[in-house]
Amino acid sequence: MKENSFILKGNICYAGTKDRLAIAEGGYLVCVQGRSCGVFPVLPEKYRGLPVTDYQSCLIIPGLVDLHTHGPQYPFRGLGMDLELLEWLETHTFPEESRYEELAYARRAYGMFAEDLKASATTRAVVFGTIHVPASILLMELLEAAGIKAFVGKVNMDQNCTEQLREQDAEKALADTRQWLADTMGSFQNVRPILTPRFAPTCSGPLLEGLGELQREYGLPVQSHLSENLSEIDWVKELFPWSGCYGEVYEHYGLFGGEALTVMAHCVHSTEPEVELLRQKGVYVAHCPQSNINLSSGIAPIRRYLDKGIRVGLGTDLAGGAAMSMFRCMADAIGASKLYWRLVDQDSRPLTMEEAFYLATKGGGAFFGQVGSFEEGYELDALVLDDTGIRTTRALGTRERLERYIYLAEEGGRLAGKYVAGQEIFRQNICG
Question: What does pTM read for this prediction?
Answer without folding.
Answer: 0.97
